[in-house]
């Protein structure tokens, strides 16, 4: 019996020792890649060699590696590197904006469910279950096909992806925090519910919500890429990573670099964010000191 009871303590001790270790190499690489991608997005207008709509018909489907076009050109002679740089900015803008909207909507609904309980809680839980059961890609295709595609609409639509996760997390943690001493003490001092939730409960659950954002962010990038690949996402003359992959699929055998360059960026970006998100989840896990 002593050996059995000692096993959980041993596991917790091992996890704590892992958390005390330095940052893993893959996490450092992930952070470095994310920093590079963000820097590219912020400086896209200054570092791109050409305008993304500039045609060079004499150098159509030019191979990568030449002095004029480092990553080659597409079927219209447009510089792949320039389009890739601008596409990174558009894709990150969509993913970042949608992640913030999703976190705000989900956290707000979760707090409302935790505060009012009863009918309000049941409605929020029902909506979360419906959202989780509804294939988001099908819903997004229907909305974009009916209303047309624009960047603001795409960001708002993607913002409804994954909100139910934040709602469940915020609801559960807010209910748990409300039963603790600090929330009850502030309430007894006369603080309004909004003040209690925003100033006291939200900072205590922020680490969990941030980790959830890092896990939702790459999913939104992939979702936007899928919609753009199908032709219902970002529309010309703008360009996104998924948009480039969609246009490059027709030239996969003759000019694979058109499709491979954005695909490589999508893969590395989503992988880097997922790795760093998992690492942050382990470091910020409130259940293990």
From TrEMBL:
SUPFAM superfamilies: MetI-like (SSF161098). Pfam families: BPD_transp_1. Coiled coil: none annotated. Residues 88-277 form the ABC transmembrane type-1 domain. It is a multi-pass membrane protein. CDD domains: TM_PBP2. Its main location: membrane. It comes from the Bacteria. The chain crosses the membrane at residues 23-42, 92-116, 136-161, 209-234, 254-275. InterPro entries: BP-dependent_transpt_permease (IPR050366), MetI-like (IPR000515), MetI-like_sf (IPR035906). Keywords: Cell membrane, Membrane, Transmembrane, Transmembrane helix, Transport. It is found in: Cell membrane. Belongs to the binding-protein-dependent transport system permease family. This is ABC transporter permease.
């Amino acid at each position: 019996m002593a050996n059995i009871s000692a096993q959980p303590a041993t596991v917790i001790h091992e996890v704590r020792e892992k958390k005390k270790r330095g940052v893993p190499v893959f996490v450092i690489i992930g952070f470095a890649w994310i920093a590079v991608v963000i820097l590219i997005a912020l400086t896209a207008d200054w570092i791109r060699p050409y305008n993304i709509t500039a045609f060079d018909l004499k150098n159509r489907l030019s191979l990568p590696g030449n002095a004029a076009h480092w990553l080659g050109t597409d079927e219209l002679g447009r510089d792949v590197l320039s389009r890739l740089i601008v596409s990174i900015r558009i894709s990150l803008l969509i993913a970042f904006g949608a992640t913030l909207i999703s976190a705000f909507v989900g956290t707000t609904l979760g707090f409302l469910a935790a505060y009012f309980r009863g009918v309000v809680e049941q409605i929020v839980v029902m909506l979360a279950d419906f959202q989780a059961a509804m294939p988001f890609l099908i819903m997004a295709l229907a909305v974009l096909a009916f209303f047309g595609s624009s960047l603001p609409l795409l960001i708002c639509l993607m913002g409804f992806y994954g909100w139910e996760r934040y709602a469940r997390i915020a609801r559960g943690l807010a209910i748990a925090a409300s039963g603790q001493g600090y929330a009850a003490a502030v309430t007894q001092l006369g603080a309004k519910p909004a003040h209690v939730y925003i100033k006291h409960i939200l900072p205590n659950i922020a680490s969990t919500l941030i980790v959830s954002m890092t896990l939702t962010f790459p999913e939104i990038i992939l979702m936007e890429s899928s919609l753009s690949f199908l032709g219902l996402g970002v529309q010309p003359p703008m360009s996104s990573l998924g948009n480039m992959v969609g246009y490059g699929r027709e030239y996969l055998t003759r000019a694979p670099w058109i499709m491979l360059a954005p695909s490589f960026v999508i893969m590395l970006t989503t992988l880097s964010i997922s790795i760093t998100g998992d690492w942050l989840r382990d470091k910020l896990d409130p259940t293990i000191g």
